[in-house]
Every structure is written in structure tokens, then in C-alpha cells.
Amino acid sequence: MAPLTTSRTLRIAAGSVLVAVVVLSLKFVAYQMTGSLALYSDALESIINVVAALAALIALRIAARPADDNHPYGHSKAEYFSAVAEGVLIVLAAFTILREALPAIQNPGARAAPLDGLLVNGLASVINGVWATFLLREGRSIGSPALLADGRHVMSDVVTSVGVLAGVLLARFTGWHVLDPLLAALVAVNILWSGWHLVRESVGGLMDGADPDTTARLRRIMSQHADGALEMHDLRTRQAGQVTFVEFHLVVPGDMTVSRSHVICDVLEEAIRAEMPGAQVTIHVEPPEKAKHHGVVVV
To answer: Which parts pass through the membrane (predicted)?
Structure first.
């Protein structure tokens, strides 16, 4: 991973901590002003945002460390631990909200919910929405699981916050007080769902799960930049944070010199890195009798 990319990723992660603290403060002010259980659940999720942002920052600092004797493939998988931890925290927050909401659903009571408190919560949601959009865009551009996980979590927070605000307003003007704890419970269910998806994706990264889109892109690159080779097979890829590891076998004519086959390997590596910056490519060159007649056939 290039130093510039590392530095930018760390700055964004530090920005996430600052934004999460600001949003948390605004949401707790809104809860204190309204006494709304639904807004309390919204504020509680923001505590998770702060902890998750700190975890992502720590994980990204670890992931930026260069390879060493104990970690010859680098430390980039540390980002997945951050995403898993965030998913677990989301689930814990959801159960905490449900613990408060379920008794209130059985015995709903009137809550003040003044409009100025709702406006404060709305301001927090706007800040979150802008930052979530930025995180998702940068996470995809850089290829950072930690930033993407943070962006998805913050965006889910925005969606639930909008629903909570709409419901609290409806409860205020209709007198249906049960809507307040009911919305809190719905927020908890939504948080559980997003936490489950986040943990599943992160565990897939830790288990070196294959990405069909990445495989298709590599097959296309191979077919376009392997002039002189006969076949590529046994393609394997894995993602470790922002680094993509690529391995495959390259079949060349039996009379081809080592120098010529090396040139083909260099061209393929450059083509792969052009589309997947920072990719680590390992190519095993084989004679024609090793061809398996599947994979990417050049001739």
C-alpha cells in the first residue's frame, strides 16, 4: 500500500472519530431535551459509532505496518478484525435498546418531544449522512474494508435516524405514545440486521473468501495481456485489507526462453497492478504438458 494512501486512510479514520463524537453529543442533547426512548436508542447507537471509529483507526495503523519476519504478508488483515469488532458492538447495542424498549411498549407513556430537540437530532443526522457518503466513496476508491464498514454502519444510522424522527413527530401530533418505544425496537432490529451482514462479510475476508468480480476482472486482464503464452490456470485470489494477493500458473511453449517467459510475467503483473493497485502477484511458469485446458486459454 502506498504511503500516500496509508496517510490519507489514517486521516479519514481520525476524521471519523471526530465526527462520531460530535454526532453523539448532539444526539444525547436531543434525547435530554425530548425524553424520547426512540431518540435514546438513536443516541446509544452513536456510542457504538465512536467506539467503532476508534477501533478502525487502531486497526488501520496496525495494517499500515510493513511486512516483517513474523508477518511476511504484512498486517493488512487487521482491518477485518476492526470490522468484526464493530459488528459485535452493533449487536450488543441492539440488545441494550430492546431491553429498554420492550417494557415501554407494554406500558407506553407520554413524552414531551419538543421540536427544538428534534431539530438538534436532525442536524446530527445530516452531518452523519454527509460523512457516510464520503466514507463509502473513499472506502471503495482506496479499497479499505475498515472504511467501508464504518461508512455502511454510519449510513444505516442515518436511515434509522430519519425513521425515528418521522415516528417521534407522528407520535407527538397523533398522541400514539406507543410509537416511541416501538420505533426504538425497530431500530434495534435494523441494527441487528446490519451487524449480522457486517460480521459475515468480515469473517469472509478473514477466511480468504473468493470474490467472483475480482476473478472475472483477472481473467479478462490475462486474456488481453498474455501474448505468447498458451494458458493460465489454477487462479487463486484473496483479499487482505487493501491488498489483493493473486496466484496462478502460466503455461508457455516448451521452446520459449526463460527471459521471454519472464517478460510475459512482467507484462501481466503490470496490467494487474494497473487495475488493482498494490496487488501482490505470484506466477508459476509451466511447460505445455502441464496444460489443463481450462481456466484462461490464450491460444
So the answer is: 12-31, 37-60, 80-98, 118-137
Dihedral angle computed from the Cα positions of residues 79, 133, 94 and 41, in that order, rounded to the nearest 10 degrees: 140
Helix axis angle for 78-106 and 145-174, nearest 10°, is 10
212-297 fold: Alpha-Beta Plaits (3.30.70)
pLDDT digits (tens, 9 = 90+) for 83-113: 677 777 777 777 777 776 677 677 765 555 5
pTM (two decimals):
0.58
Specify burial of residue 212 (Cβ count, 10 A radius: 0-12, 13-18, 19+).
exposed
Number of C-alpha atoms within 13 angstroms, CB side, residue 180? Answer: 26
What is the location of CATH 3.30.70.1350 in the chain? Answer: 212-297
